[in-house]
Every structure is written in structure tokens, then in C-alpha cells.
């Protein structure tokens, strides 16, 4: 089967062939094809005993992205007749940069098995750094980073950050914390413990090792804001006792701790306030559990459309939201870590779309991908509107002037390009049969 490469273009219409940049003495540029080969894998190939080349179709589709990098991939082969799965072990890892020891950083990523963390792992591994992931797998999964397990530069530790942890490292990206409302409300006390004690432990480690410490805070620290768009000097408007407080106040106290260690102990700190982000590996939840403003609404729309189910929009669909694509966020986090900016920095995409427009866009892109892959539809999915839940937060939109000035960072990915990748990802995931 012949395949043609997929072209991805940025906001100016220029082709995107790499992500990242060389800034602040830290080169974080990698090829997009190589990066994609790590998440747009055929992953689960359904084995047909009667055919010698049962994998040919998914592999050929995959080649559109990975440009023959399949030799470096492990496979999970599903046997439908026995409902069993066999795993192959990687014999060769995707090549990583060979850095001189003076440039190779020892990087600790807490929450590295989650959505954002796994993309950060991919990027830093490809760049040739030594990466240790610390995760208790509450919302993350080993499968997000299993393509690095066994690599000499990679280590994975099952550990809960509320307990102290000792390691020698140069940089700490502290991400560990459930990020979506159903997850962080599942055990509110644990969420606060993770935010406070986890951050305390990691800051203690940064103090002892003199590592630079970056925390992934959130736009939720602005609460239900009275200022639009939100800039970093705004102190926020948070309900300290509401159901979201375990997360919002948890992140606020984590920021307070962070600046306490900076003032008292001279720890080098970086604070990223992340706005809604979407991309491959973000979790899918049943739509009824998802706040329509949550970035995960994107994955839900995609999965509904791929399954041929109605797409549910809450409210009249005219409410606007902005979502940033995962690669832009990773660029921003790495730039912030390696810059001199120690004040909080908003990282998000200010382009607003109505939720109704989003749903239509997702439907169009799913149909485009299905047409390209020769998938026949028996009907066009409907977009249905349901009443808006009452506890919805008000609109949030980032003011990213500081990121632009201090980090020379701006989002590059258009919503359409990001969505197309995500549709490809979930289409491959659906072959696993557990979506
Ligand atoms: N995704 C977004 O849109 C978004 C927006 C704002 C902020 N953030 C922040 O970014 C970070 C990552 O978010 P994500 O979307 O990847 O979420 P995620 O839930 O996919 O990842 C969080 C990871 O932390 C791990 N974890 C949770 N509690 C832990 C503990 N006590 N000890 C060790 N590991 C623990 C989980 O198992 C998971 O792997 C979080 O700090 C979140 O608050 C994300």
C-alpha cells in the first residue's frame, strides 16, 4: 500500500517539520516525524491468523507519520479469538541525541507517566538527557512511556510524592497531581496532600541537590476571574471551600511554598501557569463527567465522532474556549525551565473558539481522516445540545505577554492541525478495543 506523507502547517501556513528551538543555551528542537513515531503508533495490531501481512494496513497508515521509523517500535498484538495480548520487546530504541556529559542534564519528572509528563519525557529523551520518572500511576500509566523502558538514559520509579524521595539531579519538573475534575475530586484530601506535601518534598530535594525546580501550576489559581484575559499579576478569585478548592487552593499553596523556598533557601524556581491543553494521550472520560470547559472535552468529541455516536454540547454552544496543543506547552515548559524568568508565567493559547464550532471542526476532521483511510460511514454523526451544568466556571483566557517577552514563546499549532493528529491517535487506540 503506498502512502503519502502528512503535511502539518503552522498559523502562518509554513510547514512544521520540527518542534522546539535552541534558546537560553538549551537546544530542545526535535524532528516532528520522530516525535510522532512515539505516539502515533499502530500500537495494537489485530492479528489475523489467516493472513501473513495482517499488520500491513496499520503499519502503512502509520508510515505516513513515522517515515519508516517502525523498526524502533515495540508491538502489542491482540488475538481476538482468545481475547489475549502478546507484547514484543524493543530490541532497538528510537535514536537519541548523543550529548557530551557537560550538556547532559539529569532530569527528574514527577507525574511523568501522565498526559503532559509523557510528552516531556519523549522530548527530553530524544534530546539526549537522562530522565527519571516518579509516578504513583493514579491517573498516569506505564504504557505512555513504555517505549523508553530499558533505555540506559531512562528510569521509572513507582513512588508517591507525598513521601520523600532522594536522587541526584540537575532539574526537577514537578507535575505530579491529578489534573481533571473527576480525578482530583475523587479523593480531595489526597489531592491537597499531593499538592502540599508532594511539592514540599520536591522543593526539599531541589534545595539539597541545588537542582532547578519547575512546578506546573494552573490557570485555576485565578479561580472565577474578574479580570479578562488573566495576566500573572492578578491574584485570583477562588472559593476556598468549594468542590474544586482541593485543586485550586492546592496549587496556590504549592506556589506559596515554591516562592518560600526561593526567598528562604535560594532555590532556583520556575512557575508555569498552564491553561487548557489537549493532545494525544489525554484521557477520555464519559461526557457527562466532563466539564465542557475542560480540555478533555476535545478527546470526548473525537471519540464520540469516531464511534459514530451523537456529539454532546452543553449549553447553546456559543460559549468560547481556548485550547493549546501539547507540543506548544512542552516548548513553553522547556523554555521556562532554561530561562532566567522566575516569576509565574502563563502558558496557553488565546485563540478562542465556540464549543459549537469545535464540535463541527472535530466532526469534519474525523470524516476527512476516515475518507483518507477508506472507512465507510453509514451516517453523519449529530451534534446534540444539552442544558449547561450549573457549577460552570466563567471563561478563562490567558494573557501571554510575559511568555512572549521573557521566553520569546508563542503557540504555533493551529487547532485544526492538533485535532488531526489527535483523531489519528484515537483511531489507532480504538483498535485496542477499550475506548
Ligand atoms: N492538562 C492540562 O490541561 C493542565 C492544565 C493546567 C495544569 N496542568 C498541570 O499539569 C500537570 C500534569 O497534568 P496532566 O494533564 O498531565 O494530568 P495527568 O493526570 O495526566 O498526569 C498527572 C500524573 O501525576 C501522577 N500523580 C498524581 N498524584 C501523584 C502522587 N501523589 N505521586 C506521584 N504521582 C502522582 C499521575 O499518576 C499522573 O501520571 C498537573 O500538575 C496539572 O495540574 C495541566
UniProtKB/TrEMBL annotation:
CDD domains xref list: UGD_SDR_e (cd05230)
Alphabetical GO biological process terms: D-xylose metabolic process; UDP-D-xylose biosynthetic process
InterPro entries: NAD(P)-bd_dom (IPR016040), NAD(P)-bd_dom_sf (IPR036291), UXS-like (IPR044516)
Subcellular location(s) per record: Cytoplasm; Golgi apparatus, Golgi stack membrane
Superkingdom, natural source: Eukaryota
Cofactor: NAD(+)
Top EC class, one word: lyase
Keywords linked to the UniProt accession: Cytoplasm, Decarboxylase, Golgi apparatus, Lyase, Membrane, NAD, Signal-anchor, Transmembrane, Transmembrane helix
Pathway involvement of the protein, from the record: Nucleotide-sugar biosynthesis; UDP-alpha-D-xylose biosynthesis; UDP-alpha-D-xylose from UDP-alpha-D-glucuronate: step 1/1
Pfam families the record matches: GDP_Man_Dehyd
Catalytic activity: UDP-alpha-D-glucuronate + H(+) = UDP-alpha-D-xylose + CO2
Topology in the lipid bilayer: Single-pass type II membrane protein
Name under which the protein is recorded: UDP-glucuronate decarboxylase
Organism field: Hebeloma cylindrosporum
Organism ancestry: Eukaryota, Fungi, Dikarya, Basidiomycota, Agaricomycotina
